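Quiz preparation item.
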């Protein structure tokens, strides 16, 4: 009889685990990445506090970059991001660098030290970073003019490399976004 009870206990435990997994499965968000709509957000600019809403940039190609001042790969990629921004400024391209730092003075000092002139937005509670399922920095999302994510990039990149610039230009021209990086 002891063996029968053991079998029933194991069977009930397995059934309970399966039921729990099924119930919890509905709360798991879909992955954010290539082919998914970019989650909309509104964040304040570091420079003057004005709100920037991603949806307002529909029709433009947007590079959304999540970073932090304490992140060495983030710092390493910033000069290339500045060169990319300068090269494409005035076109249908926008670069939004979202800092997850909770100390605004540190972000200001970082911007000044590296002479960054592209828009820096503030996400100190990482609310937007969580919506993008980002927890590693730097992490970037290339968003097409239709608001759909073209690519998700993890780690620092040389954003002004010819492959990235060409891909962005093709997207701005309405072409097919071939792979880069």
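Solution:
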């Amino acid at each position: 009889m002891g063996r029968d009870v053991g079998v029933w206990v194991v069977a009930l435990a397995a059934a309970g685990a399966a039921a729990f997994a099924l119930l919890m499965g509905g709360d798991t968000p879909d992955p954010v990445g290539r082919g998914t709509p970019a989650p909309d957000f509104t964040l304040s600019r570091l420079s003057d506090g004005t709100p920037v809403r991603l949806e307002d940039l529909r029709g433009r190609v947007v590079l959304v970059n999540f970073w932090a001042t304490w992140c060495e790969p983030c710092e390493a990629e910033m000069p290339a991001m500045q060169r990319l921004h300068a090269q494409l400024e005035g076109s249908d391209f926008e670069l939004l660098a979202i800092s997850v730092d909770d100390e605004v003075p540190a972000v200001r000092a970082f911007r000044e030290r590296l002479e960054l002139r592209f828009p820096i937005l503030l996400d100190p509670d990482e609310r937007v970073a969580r919506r993008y399922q980002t927890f590693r920095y730097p992490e970037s999302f290339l968003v097409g003019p239709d608001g759909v994510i073209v690519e998700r990039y993890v780690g620092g990149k040389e954003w002004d490399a010819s492959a990235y610039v060409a891909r962005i230009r093709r997207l701005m021209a309405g072409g097919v976004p071939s792979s880069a990086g």
